[in-house]
Every structure is written in C-alpha cells, then in structure tokens.
Automatic annotation (TrEMBL), chains A, C:
Domain (Dehydrogenase E1 component): residue spans on this chain: 11-306
Pfam families referenced in this protein's UniProt entry, alphabetically: E1_dh
Domain of life: Bacteria
PANTHER family membership: PYRUVATE DEHYDROGENASE E1 COMPONENT SUBUNIT ALPHA, PYRUVATE DEHYDROGENASE E1 COMPONENT, ALPHA SUBUNIT BACTERIAL AND ORGANELLAR
InterPro entries assigned to the protein according to its UniProt record, in alphabetical order: DH_E1 (IPR001017), PDH_E1_Alpha_Subunit (IPR050642), THDP-binding (IPR029061)
SUPFAM superfamilies per UniProt: Thiamin diphosphate-binding fold (THDP-binding) (SSF52518)
Organism: Candidatus Saganbacteria bacterium
Keyword annotations from UniProtKB, A to Z: Oxidoreductase, Pyruvate, Thiamine pyrophosphate
Annotated protein name in UniProt: Pyruvate/2-oxoglutarate dehydrogenase
Gene Ontology MF: a single term: pyruvate dehydrogenase (acetyl-transferring) activity
Cofactors named for this entry: thiamine diphosphate
TrEMBL record, chains B, D:
SUPFAM superfamilies: Thiamin diphosphate-binding fold (THDP-binding) (SSF52518), TK C-terminal domain-like (SSF52922)
Organism: Candidatus Saganbacteria bacterium
The name this protein goes by in its record: Pyruvate/2-oxoglutarate dehydrogenase
Molecular-function GO terms, alphabetical: oxidoreductase activity
Gene3D superfamilies hit by this protein: 3.40.50.920, 3.40.50.970
Length: 323, 346, 323, 346
C-alpha cells in the first residue's frame, strides 16, 4: 500500500511540478504552442494509468500534459517538444496538443474534439485480434460526448465487444460553456448504461480511489467482455487554453475552485502519506523529481532546432522522396 | 473616412443586418461568449438576446444541417466556426445536402445560409488547426465561396452573403482581423463574384487570396522601390470565379504569380492558373509561378512553420527570379511578423 | 370514427396501389430511378401524417414513396418525377430518392442515411421562432441511428426543446444486415428515454393505432415541450432496392413475411371497415383512387422531358446566370 | 493470357494478399453480404471468416477512425465504401487524422490503411450518389490517391496499396468493373505513382482519369479511322502525381485534352493542366481543353444525366475542334451505353 501510494504520489507530483514549470516559463515565449493545462485532473490520469501496464495504450486530447506524464514519465521528450526542439521524438512538429510516445503506450493526442475515440476503438480491436493483451484507454472531455463520433464509437465497441476503457473527464465545461447549455439529458452514465457497456463513475480527487475503480473496470471487462465507460469529475483550475486563472471573467465562480482546491489531488495524496509518517520519503521523491524536471528543461533549452528539411520528413513511410 | 478593423467590420455587418431583419440569427461554438470568435461576434448576444445569438453543443455536422433546415424555413442563419478545420466534420452537409437542396426541390426552396470560417496561423496551431480547404468548397457546384481581404470587403461581402438567398461560405484569415481600413458606416454590399485590384501595376500580376494579398501588397511596395511595378489582384470570390479582371491584368503585364493561402497542389492556384493559361494563351511571357504552403502537414515549431508558410519575401524573390533580377537587399525592410502581434496561448 | 377510418384507408390504398403500379411498370424501364419500396410500412406514415395538418412538415429518406403520398396525395407529381418528366415540380432531377413538395409540407428526402435529421431539427427550430405552429416529423430507419448525426440531432432537440417528432421506422434491416449486427444495445427506446425526450413505441400495423399514438405524442409535447421519439416496427416486404421479393437469398426467412402479411396494414384497415359494413363505400374509394392513379400515370407518360437547359437551372436562386 | 474482369481482379488481389498476410482484414457496409460491394468482396467471408471480413454499423466516421487505430497497431485494414459520397462523412478522419498521424508521431507510427471507394453512374443515382471527390483527397498532403483503369491495374495497384505502409485511397469506377483484360494469376504490384500509356499516338494527347480512359481510347479508335493519331495517357495515381509521361507525351504532340471523371472547376484537370502548361511552356500549340461533368449537381433523369456526363463523342468533337477538322460522321459507330449493360434498380 505505501509503495503504491508513493508511486502514485510520485506521478502526481511530477505532473503538477512540470505544469508549474510551464507556467513559470511560458511567458519567456520559447514554448510556442497552445497550452491546455491539466491542473486539477491529475488524480484521474494517474489513477487510470497506474492501473495500466507499461504496454497498455492510451489516447488523449489536446489537454494531455497530465496523461502523457502519467503514462510515460518522459519529461525529457515532454519539454523538448514544448520547446520545439530536435531532441524530441516529434522534433517540434506536434507541440503541446499532439504529444505522443508509442513505445511507452501513449499513442497520440488529437485536437479535434472526439476524433481520437474511434481510433482508440480500432487500436483495441487490433490488440484483441493480435491477442497481445494490451488494454486501451481513451480520454476525452464532457464536450466530446456531443460529437456524433463518440456515439458511433461507443456503439461499435459495445457491438464488437472491444474492451476499451472510455474515460470521460468531466470538468463541466467546454471552453466557457457549461454542460447544461450543451446536453439534452441529465446523466450521461444513465444513457451509456443502457448500452452493452460497463459504467462506473466517481467524483473523487483521490488517485487511489480512481486506481481501484479502474482495476474493477478491468476485472468487469474480463468477466463480461464489455467495454467500460468511466465517468470522472474534476475541476479545471486554469483558463481553457493558457496558463492563467480566469475567475475574473465571470463565467464561473472562484468559490467552486476553492472548494475543489481543498481536496486537490496532489495535496490530498501528500497529506495521506504524511499522516502515515512518510515525510522524509516524500522530500526525497520531490527532490528527485525537481531535479529530473530541471534537467529535462535544461536539455530542452540547450537542444538545437531541427534542420529545416525536417518539415518534409515523416509524411510517408519509406517514401520520403515523394511528397 | 472612418478607420475600423476587419474584425469590427464583420461585427458591424452582422449587427446592422440583424437589426434590419429579425430572421437573421448567428450561432456556433463560442459565438456568444466574451471572446466572441476572435472578437467578431462580441456584443451580439447583449443586443439581440440568446434567441438570436447562441452557443451550440460540439456537433458540427448536426449544427450545419440545423442551419440548412432553418434556412429552407425562411430564417437566415449565420453559422460561425473558429477554425475551418472543424467544418470538415460537416462536409457531408455541405456537399450532399446544402449545395444541392434547392436543385433537388426544383427551385422551390431557397437556402439563405451563411457559414463563416476562420483560417490562419496562431501560436503553433499545428496540423489540425491550419487548413484552408476552400478549394474543396469551390469544387462543389451550389456553394459560393468568398474570401474578403480588406475591412471594407469584410463588411460589404458579409452583408452580401447574408442577403444572398444561397449558401455562402466566408473564409476569414485571423491575421486580417487586425487590418485597419476605411469602412463606410451605413450598410452596403459588395457583389459576390467581383475581383478587386489592390494595387495597380504594369510589370507583373500577382493574384493572391486572403492573407496572401497583404503579403503581395507589401512585396509590391518593396519592389516599387527598385522600379518594379506590380499589380495585385484579389479575386475575393473564388466560387463563382469571375476571372475578367485577372485576365485583363495578365494580358497587360505578361507575367503572373499566384499566391494562395493554401497548399499548392490541387488548390485554387491550379484553377486560376489554368484559366489564365487558357485565356492568355500566347500572351504570357513566362510560366505562372504558384506560391503556397509547403506540401506537408503544418508543423508546430515556429522555425518549421516559417518554412511552411510563404510570405512577402517569398513573393519578392519569386518576382525577381521571374523578371531576371538580382535578389535585392532586404535589410532594413520590416515585414509582417506575427510575433509582434501577440504571444500565445493560441 | 368511420370518416377517420375511411380517410386512413384511402391513403393506405393510394400508397399500396401506387407502388403496385410501379412494380407493374418498372420493367418497362421508363422509370430510370432506384426504387426503394415502402411496402409494409404504410400504417406508420399514414398514421403519422394523418395526425399532422396540411401545413405541418415532414422529412424523409430515399424510401419515401409512402410518406410522400401519405402527406401530399400528389400522385401527378409522384409519377411524373418517377418518369423524369418536365411536368414534375423537380423536372426529373430528383427521382424516387429525393421526392419533395414543400407546399404540402413534404420538405425533402435524403439518400445519405440520417443526413436529414438535423435538417428537420433546424426546420422545427425555425417554426418555433416564427411561431407558425407547424410541427415537424422526421422519418428514418433503424440504420440511421447508427450515424453520429442522429445522436447530435437528438441531443440538440432535447437541449433546445425543439418539438420534433423523431419517427424511427424499424424494419430490423439495413440493406441485408440485421439489427443485432449493428447495435451495441438491446433497446433504443431505453436509451432515448434517458434524454429529455418523450418516447413512445408501437409494433402495430394498424394505422389508426399509430394515429392515436401520434396525437398523444403531440399532446405530450404541448405539455412538457420535449421532442418525441416514436419507435415503430414494420416489415419490409421487398428487397432493399428494387421491386422484387428476395426471400430466396437467405438473409431472412419468408415465414417472417407471412406472419406480418397476415396483419398487412391495408388488409387490416379494409377488414375493419368491411366488418362495420362499409363495403360499398370502399369500392367507390378504391375505384376513385384507381382512376386517379391511372390518370397520373397517363399524364406522366404523355408529358415531355425537360429541355436540356434544365440541367443548369435552379442551382442558385435569382442567380441562374452564374453557375 | 488470362482474361478476367476488373471486379474479379480486385477480388483476387484481396484474396491473395489476405492469404499472404493474416493481419489484413476487409470491412465496410455490405462487404460480407451476397452482393459484396458490386461483387468485389464476394467470397472473402467464406474464405477468411467474419473475423477478417465484416460488416459495420452505418457509422462512416467512426469506422474510418477505427481503421486508423487498427493500422497504427500493426494490422492492415481495407475499408470499402460502395459510394465515395459516403466517405464525405469521414473527411475529418482523412484530413485531420489519417493524413498526418505519422507526421505527428515523428515517424514513429505507420498507417498501412487502404480505403476503396466506388464512383460512377448507375440507374439514376442523382446528386447524392455521383460525386468523385478525388481532387479533395489529392489536395491533402499525406494521402495517396490511386485510380486504376484496367483489370491489370486494378489488381496490381490494389496489391501495391495493401503493401504500402501509408494510407492509400483507391477510386474505382463501377462501370470499369465489367472491363475484361489480361491479368496475371500470381500476385504482383504496380508501383503507385506511375502513369500508363493506354494508346500510343502522335497528333494529340488525351490525359484521362478512371472511366474517362475507356471513353478516350474509344474516341482514339474512332479518330484513327480518319487518320488522327491520339495518345491516351492515364496518370493512374493522382497523389503523388508523377507527370513525366504526361509531359513527354504533350511535348511530342503539342496538343492536349484532359478528360476527368469529375467536375472541371477546381478539379484534378486544373492541377494537371497547370503542370502541363508550366512544363510545356512554349511547346503547346493550343490551349488545353478540359472535359468533365457539367458544373451542376447530378440530375436523375437520363436525358439530363446524359448532358451532365461527357463521353467518347464529347472527346471526339473536342479533338476535331482542336485540330480544325470537320465533325466526322459517327453513324454506325457504337459507343458504350450503360443501358445495354443493365437496367436498375440502382
Ligand atoms: C471538432 C472540434 N470542434 C471544436 C473545437 C474547439 N474546441 C477546442 S476544445 C473545445 C472544448 C472541449 O471540451 P471538452 O471536451 O469538455 O474538453 P476540455 O477542454 O474541457 O478538457 C472546443 C469546442 C475543436 N477543437 N474540435
Ligand atoms: C451515409 C450512408 N451510408 C451508407 C449508405 C448506403 N445505404 C443505403 S440504405 C442503407 C441502409 C439503411 O437502413 P435503414 O436506415 O434501416 O433504412 P431502411 O433501408 O431499412 O429503410 C445503407 C447502408 C447511405 N445511403 N448513406
Ligand atoms: Mg470539459
Ligand atoms: Mg431498416
């Protein structure tokens, strides 16, 4: 238990700290990529990813900083890509919105709302056929369920018994528009529950709670071969895109934030560990991570930009000449 | 003389038209929020209420069909997309429904629908937020496709689009939003299907679309200093494409460059070039040069993005080559720099 | 009651007879348009349309012979368009798949599955805003609910309280594929019922039963301002497209057909009326309709084709010159 | 010599490849039923079972994303659409996802995905079942677009597409399905991006796409009788477009007609024309003539449909005009007539 809790804390802290560094560095204008910050959602991605194995696969959205780090812990690539450097696997072509690291199971992220959901279903289908035991989890917001393709993908996975974890990260907002202005129903889980799909929901900001929920989801899937829809609430701390708070604008109230911040996922996990007497260990972990991130940022800043010819590369496989 | 921005011109066009005709409404993702689609819809909610200015679920396909349905029932919808890329989710509605609805009813129904879609660069938008796609729209019979360049055009063409009884897609480059120009206060319309000469010249013709007109005019201004007289022609409407002014210009200059705000291959530049080649056969002194995006997905990193997008310098170098000139010294020239305009986040 | 029953029979007979004439004439190859026959579904369209007023509006699919005739009774235009003649309002441009008659409330038909559903929602929205009291009913098959746009449209109508009648005509088939191979759920009504939507369903082939159901739907809408989803079962008598039976192929069994044919909507209505002693009146009606159809076909055959210039007309309004 | 139909050639290509590589699967609406997408997928279900040959819900968008997902996870999907018009529901997946997925992963993932889509006339298909749309696909960097004409091409190019590690869209005209030709029995591939001379000639070049090649060859045969020697060039692949053979031909003949199986404006004919004009500058003896669909939605009635679609006669008349010949007497010539092939219902 303490090992698990500690591992989870490590990831939570890694994510939060990385984003804090982004907030610090973004004004330098070296990261020329639109930042859709994860702050607030860390418990979800860490909880889910911790229940997955290294080879399991996830798909995310433009808001995938947390998911990327939870799955890969690859801060080197993360910061290199944010800075658009050649040292990143994508060499700056993708930026914050299209993170990926397939070798660690992060299969890609899309900035077209909901467009990656069917891709995840197809990926899970391939895993099923190839019998490689890889799970697939696809993350999307409460806005994505308004796109028809969500429903098509859900129907397909239920029909074909493809064991996808549909992870709906519900922050109640699409940009500045609240859920009640977008949804013609009271409860998405009630609806999805009528599909041949397992449905689980949670409002906790405790990553361990989410972690256990996902273990349950995986078990359910093994039992009845149905995909699982996980509906998880969280609060978006910052503006839709950008590194600032935006409570002054008036479309939401700061009090909501204050309520949620009381049970902030990182603080929550830390206080649990502190209560168990792990103060010293925490300090060490935090220090290690601070160093790791510092080094990643240092490397990212130091690295050169890709040669201009990179623009024309990696469009086609084995076929670079023909574009 | 009253100088306002392109963005204000768009806003004023909608405001004045919505005051005139209560059947006009404007809708789309983010339309009524405080940002108002890069500012263009700001204030409309307050003025007209949420019955006539409203947000939508993230359902581009259905919201486009919705517009068609409202249009055939005598309303006049304006559907706004903050990026044209999202309109790709609704291509079926455009190509299989909207473009042929009137045809299929033997002319019984009208489709007075306006679709506004923004194109252009931002703060590292990458490959999913950087397409232009207007050549696809122009390819489909039954759609009108308009690309206003100046603030005056923005107001006049948007009003023309709103008054048109047919589906009109307006493509607006977000960098144009900050362009300032003289815009009459009273409502007026500019006919859809009329080109515009942005700068007169006699040595070479540059046909440009959307933002590339700004780059072309800048290039022309710079080249003027070394005595090269460039004519910049903005077709403004690409469907239906009226090529009269373009042809006249090329017949006069004998040289032509097309600078399109899109990929070159199978783009608008091909259609315009073909028309020119055909109608200026034997008159052209050199092959037409086409300038556009690199034929790649759009990358995020700024230095690669800079290679992806052409600009005034690309045009200047191309003119020089065409006219057999030495590359001029451009130090000291100040070109449009996005960086100077804003920094992130999007 | 007898007047109502008689009116309903008149429409049922009109539709069935018209399609029988198509089956007779199609082999002459003068109707060069793909026929998606309605036989079997007559009770639904007649029941629904009879509950609507002349100015109410309907939208249909490529399989809209029955709907068109139930709403408009316009056999002249119907046969003229089937034959591609200038005497049709659409002058042959549309054929069997794109019938329309807006002046009688038939607003169009689409051959792209589900693509007209959102259009109907928009049309209903306009009626709401214009306060013209026109109802809108949109007809679609059980295949259409697989398209994302169905879900988007449903959500939208529920969200905006747009009083559309969503009429799902469920024949259990999409071309040759049965429902169980396409749907990842047991009951579509259970799902839709979780939206802010009224839901009614029926398996009857009695047009009067459907008629009453629709009156109820309209009343419900007045009460609670929610759209209504009507789920109505029927059996497709003929092949997916074309005028023949196809029980020999093996994807479905003729026994099913035999069961359904016992309660064939036209026969059913007729026997009710006969039991009430309306034999004489029925004969007169049938004769009138036979004549009407005969005349329409005669006119259609006699009419010339449109001038070739028609190809270029009616693309743009007031703007014929510019194409 | 073994003569089989284009349809059989497609079928054989899939069959042989699926035997070779168990990661290949084929899916789409109607794929496993007894009709088998105009016959092209018949027998695959029986041979490979429904794990590798399956039907889908009517969900084009999701089923396209599904193919992408399977492809990046090392399967090799073939997605079949009985009409290209339905693919319009999945343009977002093509343009925003499939075309740039590899690019966005820095070349880490491959997308070996084949999309087969049928175009062409039927029994009054009308405006929603008659588009071609391949110029839109060709416009988007990252997609390969192939249009096989002969049975031999059908097999060789489909096999090449299946073996390609990149997304390839195959456009098949349904009238071509009945074309008969010599097709080697063993599996073979024809390189994507190679044009093909269907008939050698010296007086004029006709560049044609898809079905229009059949019309062009027919026109050439007829014109031969009056001593006109027509060269028919089939690009076969339009993206990436390799124009070498086309240019060589036009340089030789000096005259060119492009007959595209699509609308003319903003279509493939514009891109090909532009390339020719540019590379044959000063060599062309006359402007290029473009032949394609009328710029209208496609009507249903046969006599109007006949005006909408060009054919061999259109080409013959165009050649005559270009070469300054009197219109020849065509009585007695028998041209392809769809009516003779089949009657309805679709
Ligand atoms: C298809 C599409 N439509 C519109 C947008 C613009 N957009 C970007 S993010 C967003 C809101 C999405 O909300 P949600 O799915 O809840 O995700 P969140 O931002 O809350 O994480 C919108 C509308 C888009 N990216 N893609
Ligand atoms: C978007 C789209 N995909 C595929 C097709 C091909 N298609 C025509 S009818 C049909 C089946 C539709 O089934 P359903 O909605 O149940 O209607 P029914 O034919 O049973 O009346 C299909 C798949 C189409 N027309 N449109
Ligand atoms: Mg959200
Ligand atoms: Mg059905």
């Amino acid at each position: 238990m303490s090992n698990l809790s500690m591992d989870i804390y490590r990831k939570l802290y890694l994510i939060r700290k990385s984003e804090e560094e982004i907030r610090r560095l973004y004004p330098e204008n070296e990261m020329k990529t639109p930042m859709h910050m994860s702050m607030g959602e860390e418990a979800i991605v860490v909880g889910v990813c911790h229940a997955l194995s290294h080879d399991d696969q996830v798909f995310g959205t433009y808001r995938s900083h947390a998911l990327y780090l939870a799955k890969t812990e690859n801060t080197d690539n993360f910061f290199a890509e944010m800075c658009g450097k050649v040292s990143s696997m994508q060499k700056g072509k993708s930026g914050s919105m299209h993170l990926c690291d397939p070798n660690r199971g992060f299969m890609g992220a899309s900035a077209i709302v909901a467009s990656h959901i069917s891709v995840a279903v197809g990926a899970a289908f391939a895993n099923l056929r190839l019998k490689n035991k890889k799970m697939v989890a696809v993350f999307f917001g409460d806005g994505a369920i308004e796109e028809g393709t969500f429903w098509e993908s859900l129907n397909l996975a239920c029909l074909m018994k493809i064991p996808v974890l549909f992870v709906c990260e519900d922050n109640g907002l699409a940009v500045h528009t609240s859920e009640s202005e977008r949804h013609g129903y009271d409860s998405i889980t009630d609806i999805v529950g009528k599909f041949k799909c397992n449905v689980l929901k949670e409002e906790s900001t405790d990553a361990e709670t989410i972690y256990k929920l996902v273990l349950k989801a995986i078990k359910l899937n093994e039992e009845n071969q149905m995909p699982c829809f996980l509906h998880l609430k969280y609060y978006r701390y910052l503006e839709h895109v950008g590194i600032n708070e935006d409570f002054n604008i008036g479309y939401r109230s700061k009090n909501e934030y204050i309520d949620w911040a009381k049970r902030d996922p990182i603080k929550l996990q830390k206080s649990k560990l502190l209560a168990l007497g792990y103060g010293k260990e925490l300090e060490i972990i935090e220090l290690q991570i601070d160093k790791k991130i510092e080094k990643s940022i240092f490397l990212a800043k130091k690295a050169p930009f890709a040669d201009e010819s990179e623009l024309y590369k990696d469009i086609f496989s084995d076929n670079e000449a023909v574009i | 003389m009253r100088n306002i921005t392109y963005c204000e011109a768009l806003n004023e066009a909608m405001l004045q038209e919505m005051e005139r005709d209560s059947n006009i409404f404007v809708y789309g993702i983010g339309v009524p929020d405080h940002v108002g689609v890069f500012g263009s819809t700001v204030g409309l909610l307050k003025k007209f209420g949420k019955e006539r200015c409203f947000d939508t679920p993230i359902s581009e396909d259905a919201m486009t069909g919705f517009g068609l349905g409202a249009a055939i029932n005598k309303m006049r919808p304006i559907h706004v997309h903050i990026r044209v890329d999202f309109l790709l989710l609704a291509i079926n509605q455009l190509a299989n429904m909207i473009s042929c609805y009137r045809y299929g009813t033997g002319g019984t129904l009208k489709v007075p629908l306006v679709i506004r879609a923004v194109v252009g660069r931002g703060w590292g938008q990458s490959f999913q937020h950087s397409k232009s796609m207007f050549s696809t729209f122009a390819h489909i019979p039954g759609l009108k496709v308009v690309l206003p360049t100046t603030p005056k055009d923005a107001k006049g063409l948007l009003i023309a689009a709103i008054r048109d009884d047919n589906p009109v897609i307006l493509i607006e480059h977000r960098w144009l939003y900050w362009q300032v120009g003289d815009v009459p206060e009273e409502p007026y319309s500019i006919p859809i299907g009329e080109a515009n000469i942005l700068k007169k010249g006699k040595d070479i013709t540059i046909v440009a679309t959307s933002w590339m007109n700004v780059e072309a005019v800048k290039a022309a201004d710079v080249l003027e200093k070394i005595g090269i007289s460039v004519e910049v022609v903005d077709p403004r409407t690409i469907a239906p494409l009226n090529d009269e002014i373009i042809i006249k210009s090329v017949k006069k200059t004998g040289h032509c460059i097309i600078a399109d705000n899109d990929w070159v291959d199978f783009g608008v530049s091909a259609e315009i070039a073909t028309k020119i080649y055909e109608k200026c056969f034997g008159v052209l002194k050199s092959p037409i040069e086409r300038i556009g995006f690199a034929h790649t997905p759009c990358p995020t990193a700024r230095h690669l993005e800079n290679c992806f997008y052409p600009n005034a310098v690309t045009i200047i170098r191309s003119v020089e080559k065409k006219l057999g000139l030495e590359p001029m010294d451009l130090t000291g020239e100040s070109f449009y720099s996005h960086e100077n305009r804003f920094k992130g986040p999007f």
